[in-house]
Amino acid sequence: MTASRFDTALVELADDHATGALYGRSGVVYLCDGVVVHVESPSAPDLGVRLIACGRLDPEVWRRAVAEAGRDRRVGGFLVEHGCLTRGELELCHLGAVFDAGYFTLLPGSRPTRFLSGASHWLGPVRPVRAEVLRREAGRRRALLDRVWPWPASDEEPVVRRPGGDAHGGHGTGPTRSQRDVLELADGSRTPAQIAWLLGRSAFTTVLDVRRLAAAGLIETPRQRTAVPTAQRSAQDRLPQTTAPDISLLIRLRDALEAL
Predict the structure, then answer these.
(1) Is there a domain that residue 259 lies in?
(2) Spatial distance between the Cα atoms of 203 and 173, rounded to a whole number of angstroms
(3) Among candidates 180, 175, 170, which has minimal Cα distance to 234?
């Protein structure tokens, strides 16, 4: 299995209607009867972190759910049954976490290290996703990042706000609120993934913010001075002007839920 790409191995397992956990360097995908039921990656904040950070769930409630229902693999069901979340909220947040972790787990070059047959996740069933849908969404996100600013080094290295960087890009239009939050934490020691964990937000949208800020000349990596993209665009084009990434993501998640 180690000779295969991660996404190829995932689709093969899905075709075989496998149940278990497929591990790789960047994450793990849980399958049940060939469909993806959960994905985890150290690069992406998990469901609990996201629900707590947005104020939707109290930390103690999350700890109680994991402690009381984790052994039975039904933490998600516990939260709904006890009125902590509606079913729709749980499914939407879970789908966001799955696609977020899936992007990093299925990065190009990622290869599976092992498949643990029969393994299941303590969260329990929430909203399954077809393996091909997960793979397609990961590819769409990679393409989006390359359109914004084709420089993947900024995704994994520590980032820092440029000294003297013009927060308004020279055109009177500043970063979004989400991007300002990233700028405040970009101290040269934190990677985009670490910033996402601190904020309790989608790691992908944090990477997207970093790329847009890098394109606008507001952020860089400590080693950026030796290699920068040659393509140049106006600062007006580099920062989003209307729709915040989180809103766009919610719309796509809603559409994905309706299509499943």
Answers:
(1) no
(2) 24
(3) 170
Residues 6+ apart with CB under 8 A from 246: 178, 201, 202, 205
Retrieve residue 53's tokens.
């950070």
Shared domain check, 225 and 126? no
Q: Last residue of a domain, which of 143, 159, 182? A: 143
| Rounded (10°) angle between helices 87-105 and 203-215 | 60
**Which of 58-77 are b and which e, b meaning 16 or more Cβ less than 10 Å from the residue's Cβ?**
eeebbebbbeebeeeebbbb
- Tens digit of each residue's pLDDT (9 = 90 or more) over 207-218: 999 999 999 999
Using 50, 70 and 90 to split pLDDT, how confident is the model at 125? very high
Question: Within this chain, do residues 70 and 138 fall inside the same structural domain, yes or no?
Answer: yes
- Asked whether the whole model's pTM tops 0.90, one would answer no
